[in-house]
């Protein structure tokens, strides 16, 4: 059978073009910056000696306002979760142009806090993502925030302790852990911590869960406040059956807010439908 070399060459070009389409769709540059658009990018990271590609979803409004630099919200899924879940969770905000959503995927579907199956250095992973985002247009790199749930929430705490990227964080259903002390050089940030009083996965009163020793939720908020030199007499407000504590006048004009949801379990969404709106309203102040 006669081989058509021209046909083989054409097929090879098509194959390699398709293979790289998800990574190169945003390679067109404007003023030396990549064009911001909804896409999935891959970040290369060495994990246990092997080069791995880790996906990150960038979620933008349908039409980018080229005169605006958008705030950035990282959202980290819980253990066993997927980054794609955030697309629908935060779609109203990204579609409206409130912020650009950045949704990384945990290696082995989790975030490495010491006892997880994943041995990835997730602080380094987030650093790599932020370095990549610096190559894009229309992003406000001075207004970066982070939301996390469960395992992702504990990772958000770790990121706030070990990096200086974030203006504010919202750890949902996970408080600080004994194995993750706030450091002397931890930069002051604003924190909106939310816990459910009926959470059976990570008890609000603290204790061992998922191989970690969690602090009492109120003591966790108090520890953030103490380390950031806040007013240690919080303003207490009853909201229905729930209780909100606000430690104000912190370093850098920051604030620590702790919301205790009395009938809240580990999944707070059903009982707290406005949770992400409240979190975004908190972020916008900083």
Task: Report on the architecture of this protein.
With 286 residues, the chain is of the alpha/beta class. The chain has 2 domains: 23-166, 3-Layer(aba) Sandwich (Rossmann fold), CATH 3.40.50.1820; 179-268, no CATH class. The protein has helices at 5-19, 21-24, 85-89, 91-95, 122-133, 151-162, 217-227, 275-283, and strands spanning 29-30, 33-34, 39-47, 50-59, 70-76, 100-104, 139-149, 168-172, 190-196, 207-209, 212-214, 235-239, 242-247, 256-261. The strands form 3 sheets. It has a 10-stranded mixed sheet, sandwiched between helices. A hairpin with a 2-residue loop joins β3 and β4. Residues 1-26 have low confidence and may be disordered.
Overview features:
disordered N terminus; 2 domains; alpha/beta; 10-stranded mixed beta sheet; 286 residues; 26% helix; single chain
Question: What is the compact description of this entry?
Answer:
With 286 residues, the chain is an alpha/beta fold. Helices cover 26% and strands 28% of the residues. The chain contains 8 helices and 14 strands.
